[in-house]
Amino acid sequence: MFSFNIDHKDPQSSARAGVIQTAHGEIQTPIFMPVGTAGTVKAVHQHELETEIKAQIILGNTYHLYLRPGIEILQQVGGLHKFNGWNHPILTDSGGYQVYSLGNTRKIKEEGVTFNSHIDGSPHFFSPERAIDIQRIIGADIIMAFDECTPYPCEYGYAKKSMEMTHRWLARCCERFDNTQGLYGYEQTLFPIVQGSTYTDLRIQSAEAIAAFNRPANAIGGLSVGEPAEDMYAMTELVCGVLPADKPRYLMGVGTPVNILESIALGIDMFDCVLPTRNARHGLLYTAEGILNMRNAKWKDDFSPIDANSPCHSSRFYSKAYLRHLIHSSEILGMQIATLQNLSFFLWLVTEARAHIQAGDFRAWKEMMVPKLETRL
Amino acid sequence: MFSFNIDHKDPQSSARAGVIQTAHGEIQTPIFMPVGTAGTVKAVHQHELETEIKAQIILGNTYHLYLRPGIEILQQVGGLHKFNGWNHPILTDSGGYQVYSLGNTRKIKEEGVTFNSHIDGSPHFFSPERAIDIQRIIGADIIMAFDECTPYPCEYGYAKKSMEMTHRWLARCCERFDNTQGLYGYEQTLFPIVQGSTYTDLRIQSAEAIAAFNRPANAIGGLSVGEPAEDMYAMTELVCGVLPADKPRYLMGVGTPVNILESIALGIDMFDCVLPTRNARHGLLYTAEGILNMRNAKWKDDFSPIDANSPCHSSRFYSKAYLRHLIHSSEILGMQIATLQNLSFFLWLVTEARAHIQAGDFRAWKEMMVPKLETRL
């Protein structure tokens, strides 16, 4: 069922436009995937994801879903799609990243990771096999290998050891995945993850090892964790050069609008990031003309639409002054409006990128867009 | 412009069905008015108020709007309708109630009330004249007299003195109102407020005094502040007997679904309350079959719709288990869904009440509904 077809390649960069087919429908790439941590993209309705934001695939976090609502509930209802009513593609991470960043007193060993819930302190154990089993139960169309995402900076020795363990864990993930089936009558696809921190030799080594597993798509992890942007781009370019060109490439946890355009140019097809949603709730807006901090007093009597060119109704309907008031007053509606703006903009951005790849002028368009996207309005 | 026509009277109670005409459109009574404290009904979009909740009029709180965004902004944009994009009727309270309940170190004197902002402690002064001026700037279709809302219980001597001052304040409100005009080219209407705590003689005295001002509508304040329900009903019935039958009667701050039906039976036409919105955010749902506490574990694997009979899409689309998960995880979407459910139910309830008044079987319907509405599911 899972397939990837590249329609167009940009003549002046490594950007490509394609279509991923999944059991819950197709995804036009390059794509940005809104993060729906606990089975909800915070502050937006599922129908708004469809009609306003025009999301094609959303993320779920295995760690969060495992703790709440719990896998018993998800199994009983028949998976996350049935639970939250999102009948389009879903991707779940493996839970590893949250275990490392949120879990208390985590211990990483060859067998797996023990950790305590950040909610109630209860003890839990994740392993490559367990991460696959849980993701089988959640039932996402795309599931991720259980890896260790090293922090930045990371000492070379640790990065190498960790990468090697991630490769051994991937073998265990693949074995478990290949010996089990989706629980709900449709196919799931496992994406392996390249690690190697910011070390050129490790990244090449990891990309080669991961490519050798010959899965239908590949992901790049361990970037956008605090390293300089040039390092991120350098590692991405390096890894894209090793990973097979005919399979989707997913750059995990990236990024700003500029990061996304630059990484598309390097050959990345899929992105996810909490930036548009988290920053929205703090009043930071992304638009095609630049970034607006809605907390600034300068917006208090600006009665023009939030973003007159937004594909999103609420951004054309409400004024900057009204949104500024809502954000300033910590009103929920402010978070709703800002989230709709940011996500619809991120989806607009990748859709435009795709159109320009198809038109053959992606690079010129990107170079025109980048300074605008970085402007503080 | 403001008018009230009674279409039907219930033969077996004092309930009536009517239509209020305002500059921003008509209101079919009896009506429930969602509370939009700071110019937003928390967690719902304006278009959801229109199409899902079917609100006909919403409330704004003068105290909150005066502090944020402030009257300069509201005057500059041309009033609250223009600011928040709600192009239907709006009612504002006078600010008094919030001054007493939220303001710090408030001092009530004959001239007016000094208080400190609950946001930044800054000193402010409200008087009957100032409350009218501010409400002229906010530009609501219906504005309220500046009164003192006595707490419960309230000593007789204080209740009497306070009521008498409220009457003198009303004279000042009317004078200011009658000597000024709406700022934005449409008419506003001032509602006076009956006080008198839970004392029969004071309530009669106040209702007579307020009726003598001969304004186009009348309100009843100082109830639903902690007194037993039977006292609230007794005072409401008493006051309704004195206030003219051909003018709208607004029972301020009431109440539960049962309170609303019982008060409609006593001759009340308009209601507002934070109950459906505030309780929604804490996971308490109102339905035609009873009350659901979504925090209860019993809902965790109930995959049936939140309310299959709801007029609201989200209540038919999402399951109880999903909403329980969202509320349990303090997700914003949970507050959104629960608010939509409660407000659409409150609007459904008054619309049904109206239909049964028109059909002549309101009393029988009310008696059938009351036990259901009180049921804890």
UniProtKB/TrEMBL annotation, chains A, B:
The active site is at residues 93, 272. It comes from the Bacteria. GO terms for biological process: tRNA queuosine(34) biosynthetic process. Residues 14-372 form the tRNA-guanine(15) transglycosylase-like domain. Residues 253-259, 277-281 are annotated as: RNA binding. The keyword Transferase applies. Keywords: Glycosyltransferase, Queuosine biosynthesis, Transferase, tRNA processing. It catalyses: 7-aminomethyl-7-carbaguanine + guanosine(34) in tRNA = 7-aminomethyl-7-carbaguanosine(34) in tRNA + guanine. GO terms for molecular function: tRNA-guanosine(34) queuine transglycosylase activity. Pathway: tRNA modification; tRNA-queuosine biosynthesis. Substrate binds at residues 93-97, 147, 195, 222. One of its GO terms (cellular component) is cytosol. HAMAP family: Q_tRNA_Tgt. Catalyzes the base-exchange of a guanine (G) residue with the queuine precursor 7-aminomethyl-7-deazaguanine (PreQ1) at position 34 (anticodon wobble position) in tRNAs with GU(N) anticodons (tRNA-Asp, -Asn, -His and -Tyr). Catalysis occurs through a double-displacement mechanism. The nucleophile active site attacks the C1' of nucleotide 34 to detach the guanine base from the RNA, forming a covalent enzyme-RNA intermediate. The proton acceptor active site deprotonates the incoming PreQ1, allowing a nucleophilic attack on the C1' of the ribose to form the product. Belongs to the queuine tRNA-ribosyltransferase family. Homodimer. Within each dimer, one monomer is responsible for RNA recognition and catalysis, while the other monomer binds to the replacement base PreQ1. This is Queuine tRNA-ribosyltransferase.
